[in-house]
Amino acid sequence: METQGEPPIKKSNFIIDLVEADLDSNRYDGRVQTRFPPEPNGFLHVGHAKAICLNSSIANDYSGVFNLRYDDTNPVTESTEFVASIKDDLQWLLGEELKTVPLHTSDYFKQLYLWAEDLIMKGKAYVDDQDVKTISKQRGGFQETGLNSPYRDRGTEENLHLFREMRAGKFYEGECVLRAKIDMGHDNMNMRDPIMYRVKTEEHFRTGKEWNIYPTYDWAHGQSDAIEKVTHSLCSLEFESHRELYNWFLDQLEITGNQRPYQTEFARLNFTYTVLSKRLLKYLVEDKIVDGWDDPRMPTLRGFRKRGYPAVAVRNFCEHIGVAKTNGTHEIELLESFIRNNLNQNAERRMAVLNPLKVTITNWPEGHVDMRQAINNPEDESAGTREIPFTGSLYIEREDFMENPEPKYYRLAPGREVRLRYGYFITCNKIVKDKEGNVTELLCSYDPETSGGKAPDGRKVKATIHWVSAEHALEGSAVLYDRLFSTEHPGAETGEPLDDINPNSKTLRECIKLEPSIGDLTRGSVVQFERLGYFHPDEEIPLLFHRTVGLRDEWANIVKRR
Ligand code: ATP
Ligand code: MG
Fold first, then answer.
1. SS3 state at 385
2. Ligand 2 centre and the CA of 278: distance in Å?
3. Which of 409, 442, 471 is the last residue of a domain?
4. Statement to judge: residues 331 and 226 lie in one domain
5. For residue 555, is pLDDT > 90?
6. Residue 492 predicted with pLDDT over 70
7. How far is CA 485 from CA 272, 290, 301, in A?
8. Are 357 and 432 within 8 A, CB to CB?
9. Which residues constitute the domain of residue 48?
10. In this structure, what are the phi and psi dihedrals at residue 531, rounded to the nearest 5 degrees?
11. Which of 229, 268, 358, 531 is the catalytic position?
């Protein structure tokens, strides 16, 4: 059973075993080098976080090198906005500046081009004049062998000439491609003469108009690894069937020995109630289902930041789940539990009322302000204490009062006494209502003898509720978030994840009342509003709070149920 405890003392998984075996056999003369190769066509999400943590920790643990490489081979979808955000998010996640300058596949376009000419000259690549649709049809299927292209046996000189013309911009998009010449009857579909270059006329954000042809992932990836001298090329499972091609290209280029990278696959991270496909995330943003890539409901690192997830908690989570060889789905509650445990240790406590109901204490000495001492963090004595003003005019949470209390409702009700946290016992004596019959105010009395939180005569109360002094309260707003999808596996029933969007995933609470010291909180720090959850102040709008996570550990229940 998976528990939520500390990460294992001695880390071990199949990738670590592999790296250690390579170190033992001196395969790379003791070198370890990894990379994280995102395409700059979107913002990073928590799946990327897993790949980043894995690659960077392997490099760190073995005194190796970890690089960020932008896999910028498609000018149509990529932009500098994504380039900047990826680096920024990556540094946020790792909690430090990158130790190496970011690299770009586009820096290797020349070398990749020269290597492609090499393959042509060896008779291992050819220019195909067919369109991509036809080529795709000719690939056949698992039970069906592919068809050779009518252009497959072009001579070397003609291929070289045409390829140079492709580069020189003599062809339109889709007019021709460069293909590797392998085997159209191969069991592995990726080996059926895969495309290496496509014509694209769009301007590239780094190389401008210099290139009219762009390498495919398969052609660019392994060769970029080799150029950078990556030792362990770790990628997600969907590339498993590409490994044979990865190796084939390196074989043709005679990249061997300690210069040759090896690809190893690991399972992608998936979560319940979550989608992690960039295409879908992009759709949510573009269709304005969410308020942008940094919407706190998004599984993006931007969203996590805005919501107040501590980076170290995300890293600890990634380390805890480790790596697997088969795809699986993690429960989102496990991640939330890492966030909550971290915040429980570190977040200061404050009192805030999200849905205020006025309370007037009728026997309170007029104008008197009693400064009450409160503990900032019961989990961390060094966080100290603060003072909160208590007066005869307070706000409590509307939900903490019921005119006709249900069974087992122990909070405030007519004639009933409760404890105000860090304050006194109060009893509700009278309800004030407006014309429509809505409760607008409670008239209560307090017992001055209960200043220490206890009654000297030993009488008990069944509930302690929070409050804020009305005249001292700051006014702010809070956004409460629920899951973006209402089913565990979005799209499982209809095949369309968007059918399972939760229409009530965001609730804005305005005119919330905050104890005055909330105004002095350090910028950016998450705070626990007592009894309500953890909240992260917005970076731009003062006194706007995003609910990071609630107080209840749902993961504990899941573990118990198992
Ligand atoms: P798409 O969602 O369109 O498949 P992508 O998220 O794979 O795109 P890339 O920019 O290619 O986008 O990803 C960069 C790296 O992150 C890749 O090496 C990929 O294996 C890894 N990665 C992406 N998603 C996950 C995931 N859910 N779990 C683990 N690693 C992931
Ligand atoms: Mg991908």
1. strand
2. 9
3. 471
4. yes
5. no
6. yes
7. 9, 12, 18
8. no
9. 14-103+220-338
10. 70, -5
11. 268
